[in-house]
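Section 3.1: Structural characterization of target chains.
Under the original work plan, the team committed to producing a structural model for every single-chain target entering the pipeline before any wet-lab resources were allocated. The record below documents one such target. The sequence was received from the expression subgroup and is listed exactly as submitted; it comprises 238 residues.
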Amino acid sequence: MIPKLQCLLVDDEPPALDILRAYIATIPILEVAGECHHAMAAFGILQNTHIDIIFLDINMPRLLGTDFLKALPNPPKVIFTTAHRDYAVEGFELGAVDYLLKPYSLERFLLAVNRVMNVTQKAPVQPAVTTTSDRFIYVRADRKMVKIMVDDILYIEGLKDYVRIVLHDRQVITKQTITALEEMLPTQDFMRIHRSVITAISKIDSYNQHAVFIGKLEFPIGPHYKHDIARKLTGIRP
């Protein structure tokens, strides 16, 4: 059983904390380990509690969130949550995994969490337990957050405002764009071959100039993706 990621919520606005709490409650892998209304209080929590992710506001009294992060010698993963887009560049320069601009949707929040998962699972300090089969993402489907194992994905198809994720034994349909879902996936394992199709590279059996083949399924290659396909599939010849 994969342990839950312990989250620290730091925001001076109670409604913002309420939203974070509600979003986290929908994702089984996350758990709120602490919350506070200013960055100074967060120092004490970090000294006494194991934290995996900090959801950190920036424009707070007493100490800016960016200055707080600068003061941490070995910070956990950080996702900034702020109404001010002016801090975005500085936030990423400080090593933040993502930058959520208020008000943000559950789908955008989920994308940020999946980015943390990808960063954590690729960390070189855990090579013995980090395998493709360990990786997963969460998507919203059937009014709940559904866990998708990365290694089970065959291909993904965009259907206007929805995306169909086809696995070995089932399919999951979620309401979001194919581009948003593409950002959740590890780039070394998946490839956009058409504006409406993403394929798992390891599942491709063959390809030619016009199409990619997974078993008996044939997927047309979009003209704007041919160069990237040739680069990524140099070891696969039709």
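Residues 11 and 118 are 25 Å apart (CA to CA).
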